[in-house]
Amino acid sequence: MPQPEPSYPPGSIVSELTRGQPYIFMVMPFNEDYPLFRLIRDVVQQSVGLACIRADEVKGSGHDLLAKIHVLIERSELVIADIAGERPNVFYEIGYALGVKKELMLVVKAGTNIPTDLKGREVIQYVESKDGMQLFERELREHLRLRINSQTALLRDMLEADKPQPAYIVASPKHPKQRTQDPVFVGLYDPRTFGDYLGIRGLITAFGLTMGEGASVELISEQVAPPDFLARDLNLYFIGSDKNNPAVKDMLERMQKGQEPAWEFGPYPGETAKGDYRNALYRTKHGERELKEGESELVGRKRVRLYTKDYGIIVRGPHPDHSDRLLMVMAGPHSLGTGAACLAATRSPLIQEIKARLAAIDVKLTDRDQAFWVLVSGRLKRQENIIEMGDVTIEEVGIYG
Question: N or C: less crowded end of the chain, CB within 10 Å?
Answer without folding.
Answer: N
